[in-house]
Known about the structure:
By secondary structure, this protein is of the alpha/beta class. It has helices at residues 30-42, 106-126, 130-141, 144-158, 181-207, 225-229, 261-266, 270-280, 316-330, 344-352, 361-364, 392-397, 399-406, 412-435, 446-458, 499-502, 506-521, and strands spanning 9-13, 47-49, 211-216, 238-242, 252-253, 285-288, 296-301, 310-313, 333-336, 357-360, 380-383, 464-468. The strands form 2 sheets. The protein has an 8-stranded parallel β-sheet. A 4-stranded antiparallel β-sheet has the order 5-4-7-8, with no helix packed on it.
Amino acid sequence: MVSFTRDxxxxxxxxxxALHRESSDGAGDFSDxxxxxxxxAGRGGSLVATLPLLxxxxxxxxxxxxxxxxxxxxxxxxxxxxxxxxxxxxxxCPPRSDPEAGLVDxxxxxxxxxxxxxxxxxxxxxxxxxxxxxxxxECRKNPELEQFARFRAVGERQGRPWPQWPEPLRSGTxxxxxxDESVFRYHLFxxxxxxxxxxxxxxxxxxxxxxxxxxFPLGVAGAGYDAWREPELFVRGASGGAPPDSxxxxxxxxGFPPFHPDNLRRQGYRYFIRALxxxxxxxxxxxxxxxxxxxxxxxxxxxxxxTDGGYVRYRMDELCAILTxxxxxxxxxxxxxxxGTVPAAVNEALSRHRLDDMYVLQYETNPExxxxxxxxxxxxxxxxxxxxxxxxxxxWQGLDxxxxxxxxxxxxxxxxxxxxxxxxLRTQLAAFLREEGLLxxxxxxxxxxxxxxxxxxxxxxxxxxxxxxxDLWGETGPQNVPGTYRERPNWRRKAKHPLExxxxxxxxxxxxxxxxxLRQQKPQPADRPGVSLHEQPEQRSGQQDDERPxxxx
Length: 553
C-alpha cells in the first residue's frame, strides 16, 4: 500500500467527464476512471486526481460546474456505469454520444443513461431478492439516503428550486403524496449504486497501490439539498466571492450561499464533519478548495456588486483541527488550495495543523521578480497549472491573452503589455531551466520547455507531483475560463484522445518516464526523514499577501 512515510509521489490529473475510451465515446464513468488508475499504476504513478464528483440537480440546471453541487453529502449518478449493475442486459446500453462533437452534452447523456437506470431500478424493486435487504440495511445505516431521494423526487414534481416550493415542503416536511414513488425509488437506487461503485473503485485503487486524489468544493448550490436540509447553516442574503484585484477588477460573485460561522459552531460542525467523511471514505488525498475560507470568506450581499462585499471571519483553528482529526482517522492527507492572495495566518495554520499546500509553476513565474523559481516546499502538491488556468501550450503561446481580449477582459493596450510580459517570461524561464541543467537548446521549442518544467517539479522536494495529462499532447483548450458561464464551454470539453490512444503516445510516455525516474532517484533530505501522519513536519514560514489574484471559480 502507498505510504505517506515515503515522499516523492507522482500522479496524473484529468477531469472524469473529459476521460473516455474507444469503447465509450461519451463522458467518462467510474469504469473509465478504473482503467486510468490501472494505466497510471502500470507506469509507476501513485495517484489519480479528479475534479469533484458530487450530486447535481439535473432537472433544474444547465450549469455543469463541479464546484456548484447540489450536495457535499451525495454523489453524481451521471458517472455510474450501468453495465456493472446486477440485472443489466446488453440491450439496455444507452446510445453513444457524438464522438466528433468534442463536448459533453450532459442533458442528453443523462437522459439516455437515466432510461437504463430507471429500468434497472424498477426491476430491482419489483423482484424479491437478498439485494433488497442490503438496501434496507443501507437505509437504516444512513437514513439521510431516503431523505435525499425524497428531496430529488419532490424537486422533479415541483419543477422549480426548493425556495419556490410551497409550505410545508420548503421547510423540510415531505409526505408520501408529495412525490412520485417511482422517482423516489430511482434516486434511492442510483445513489446506493453510486456508493457501491465508489467503494469498488476505492478498493481497486488500494489493490493497485494507488492513492485517489479527490476535490472538496468550497460551497454548494443554494437550490440544492444541503441548503434545504440545513437552512440555518447557509446565509440566504449573500454569496461567496472575491474582492476586486488586478485580474478581476470588478470582483467576483460565485453565486453560492456562504456558511454561517456561528451556526456551524453551534451544531458542533456536524455537517462539516459529515461532508468530510463522505469524501474520506474513498479518497486518500483530499484537496480542500479555497482553503482561505477556513479563515475568512468574502461575502457579497444580494443586490450589490461584488465591489461592495466584505470579509467575514471563521474559526480556522477549530476547522483545521477537524481536518487533522479526520485525516488521521482515515489515514489520508488534506491539501489546502492556498493559491493567490492568501494571508500569512492561513499558511501558518496549514503548517501548524500539518496540512499540505499547493505549488503551481505557472503561478510562480514572474518576470518582474527575476528568472529564479521558488522551489516547491516539501509539504506541497506541485503542478504546472490547475483546471482554472490555461493549458501550458496556450500559456506559452499567449492564446489566453487573445481569449481575454475576445471576452472584453483586456483592452488592446493591456493585451500588448501582457504579451510583452509573457515574452520576457518565456525568455527567463528557458534561461532558468538551462541553468538547472534541464534544457540544452538556446532556442527550445514548447514541448522541450514543458518537459523541463515537469522535470524541475519531479526532482524537487515536493511531496506530490501532479501531471496534467492534456499538457502532454499540447492541448490548448481550457477546461474552465474563470469569470465566464455561457460565453465558453466550461466543464464540458472532452479530452482530444481516448485513453487507448494517448496511452501509446511517445511524448506522453517519455515525460511520465522522466517524472517517474526523477521521483525515484531524488534522495530524502538529510535533515528530514519521511513524514508519516503521526510525525511533526517542519515549520513553514507564512507567506505574506502578494499581488496575485484570488483563485477564481
